[in-house]
Amino acid sequence: xxxxxxxxxxxxxxxxxxxxxxxxxxxxxxxxxxxxxxxxxxxxxxxxxxxxxxxxxxxxxxxxxxxxxxxxxxxxxxxxxxxxxxxxxxxxxxxxxxxxxxxxxxxxxxxxxxxxxxxxxxxxxxxxxxxxxxxxxxxxx
Length: 141
Ligand SMILES: [Zn+2]
Ligand SMILES: [Zn+2]
What we know:
two-stranded antiparallel sheet; binds zinc ion
Protein backbone atom coordinates (compact mmCIF):
# COMPACT_ATOMS: atom_id res chain seq x y z
CA UNK A 1 0.00 0.00 0.00
CA UNK A 2 3.05 2.24 -0.11
CA UNK A 3 1.82 3.81 -3.36
CA UNK A 4 -0.98 5.46 -1.39
CA UNK A 5 1.50 7.36 0.73
CA UNK A 6 2.37 9.73 -2.10
CA UNK A 7 5.80 10.55 -3.43
CA UNK A 8 8.66 9.59 -1.18
CA UNK A 9 11.93 11.40 -1.13
CA UNK A 10 15.38 9.98 -1.07
CA UNK A 11 18.69 9.74 -2.85
CA UNK A 12 18.84 8.70 -6.49
CA UNK A 13 19.20 4.97 -7.09
CA UNK A 14 22.30 5.42 -9.25
CA UNK A 15 24.31 7.12 -6.48
CA UNK A 16 24.69 10.30 -8.51
CA UNK A 17 24.05 12.20 -5.28
CA UNK A 18 20.78 13.86 -6.28
CA UNK A 19 18.16 14.08 -3.55
CA UNK A 20 14.48 14.57 -4.25
CA UNK A 21 11.24 12.87 -5.17
CA UNK A 22 11.88 9.29 -6.23
CA UNK A 23 10.40 8.58 -9.64
CA UNK A 24 8.58 5.47 -10.77
CA UNK A 25 10.50 5.18 -14.02
CA UNK A 26 13.35 4.65 -13.95
CA UNK A 27 12.45 3.40 -10.48
CA UNK A 28 14.14 5.28 -7.68
CA UNK A 29 15.82 7.93 -9.84
CA UNK A 30 15.53 11.68 -9.33
CA UNK A 31 14.55 14.32 -11.84
CA UNK A 32 17.69 15.74 -13.44
CA UNK A 33 19.65 12.51 -13.06
CA UNK A 34 22.08 12.00 -15.93
CA UNK A 35 22.67 8.24 -15.73
CA UNK A 36 22.30 6.15 -18.93
CA UNK A 37 18.84 4.92 -17.91
CA UNK A 38 17.50 8.43 -17.34
CA UNK A 39 19.20 9.82 -20.45
CA UNK A 40 17.72 6.97 -22.49
CA UNK A 41 14.25 7.74 -21.19
CA UNK A 42 14.62 11.44 -21.96
CA UNK A 43 15.89 10.67 -25.47
CA UNK A 44 12.93 8.38 -26.13
CA UNK A 45 10.55 11.05 -24.91
CA UNK A 46 12.24 13.63 -27.14
CA UNK A 47 12.06 11.25 -30.10
CA UNK A 48 8.39 10.56 -29.42
CA UNK A 49 7.59 14.25 -29.27
CA UNK A 50 9.47 14.91 -32.56
CA UNK A 51 7.59 12.02 -34.15
CA UNK A 52 4.32 13.50 -32.90
CA UNK A 53 5.18 16.89 -34.41
CA UNK A 54 6.08 15.29 -37.75
CA UNK A 55 2.97 13.13 -37.78
CA UNK A 56 0.74 16.12 -37.15
CA UNK A 57 2.42 18.15 -39.89
CA UNK A 58 2.05 15.25 -42.32
CA UNK A 59 -1.63 14.89 -41.48
CA UNK A 60 -1.08 11.26 -40.55
CA UNK A 61 -3.89 9.88 -38.47
CA UNK A 62 -4.15 6.46 -36.99
CA UNK A 63 -2.73 4.79 -33.95
CA UNK A 64 -0.67 7.15 -31.84
CA UNK A 65 2.30 4.91 -31.44
CA UNK A 66 6.02 5.11 -30.98
CA UNK A 67 6.21 2.71 -33.90
CA UNK A 68 5.79 4.82 -36.99
CA UNK A 69 5.15 1.80 -39.21
CA UNK A 70 1.61 1.52 -37.83
CA UNK A 71 0.71 5.15 -38.44
CA UNK A 72 -1.21 4.48 -41.60
CA UNK A 73 -1.13 6.63 -44.71
CA UNK A 74 0.38 5.61 -48.03
CA UNK A 75 4.03 5.68 -46.99
CA UNK A 76 5.91 4.04 -44.21
CA UNK A 77 7.33 6.95 -42.25
CA UNK A 78 10.29 6.77 -39.96
CA UNK A 79 10.97 9.93 -37.98
CA UNK A 80 14.49 10.32 -36.68
CA UNK A 81 15.84 13.02 -34.41
CA UNK A 82 18.92 13.90 -32.41
CA UNK A 83 22.61 13.41 -33.09
CA UNK A 84 22.09 10.62 -35.64
CA UNK A 85 20.45 12.99 -38.13
CA UNK A 86 23.03 15.77 -37.93
CA UNK A 87 24.98 14.69 -41.05
CA UNK A 88 21.78 14.71 -43.10
CA UNK A 89 20.76 18.11 -41.77
CA UNK A 90 24.21 19.58 -42.41
CA UNK A 91 24.30 18.28 -45.98
CA UNK A 92 20.78 19.51 -46.66
CA UNK A 93 21.42 23.02 -45.32
CA UNK A 94 24.65 23.34 -47.29
CA UNK A 95 22.93 22.36 -50.53
CA UNK A 96 19.93 24.56 -49.78
CA UNK A 97 22.21 27.61 -49.40
CA UNK A 98 23.92 26.75 -52.70
CA UNK A 99 20.57 26.46 -54.42
CA UNK A 100 19.38 29.71 -52.85
CA UNK A 101 22.40 31.52 -54.32
CA UNK A 102 21.37 30.44 -57.82
CA UNK A 103 17.65 30.92 -57.37
CA UNK A 104 16.18 33.31 -59.95
CA UNK A 105 14.07 36.13 -58.57
CA UNK A 106 10.43 35.05 -58.53
CA UNK A 107 11.22 31.35 -58.39
CA UNK A 108 9.40 30.42 -55.24
CA UNK A 109 9.29 26.68 -55.73
CA UNK A 110 10.26 24.63 -52.70
CA UNK A 111 13.74 23.17 -52.58
CA UNK A 112 14.29 19.44 -52.80
CA UNK A 113 17.64 17.76 -52.31
CA UNK A 114 18.21 14.57 -54.26
CA UNK A 115 21.31 12.58 -53.38
CA UNK A 116 22.59 9.88 -55.70
CA UNK A 117 25.05 7.55 -54.00
CA UNK A 118 27.91 5.93 -55.92
CA UNK A 119 27.03 2.55 -57.34
CA UNK A 120 23.29 3.10 -57.31
CA UNK A 121 20.78 4.22 -59.91
CA UNK A 122 18.36 5.12 -57.18
CA UNK A 123 18.65 8.16 -54.96
CA UNK A 124 17.21 9.78 -51.89
CA UNK A 125 14.97 12.76 -51.45
CA UNK A 126 15.23 15.24 -48.59
CA UNK A 127 12.88 18.19 -48.26
CA UNK A 128 11.88 20.60 -45.55
CA UNK A 129 8.79 19.13 -43.90
CA UNK A 130 6.99 22.49 -44.14
CA UNK A 131 7.73 22.70 -47.89
CA UNK A 132 6.72 19.10 -48.45
CA UNK A 133 3.32 19.45 -46.80
CA UNK A 134 2.61 22.81 -48.48
CA UNK A 135 3.63 21.43 -51.88
CA UNK A 136 1.36 18.40 -51.47
CA UNK A 137 -1.49 20.40 -49.98
CA UNK A 138 -1.39 18.29 -46.84
CA UNK A 139 -3.53 19.52 -43.99
CA UNK A 140 -2.06 19.09 -40.54
CA UNK A 141 -4.09 17.07 -38.04
ZN1 LIG B 1 20.97 9.36 -10.48
ZN1 LIG C 1 19.10 7.91 -13.32
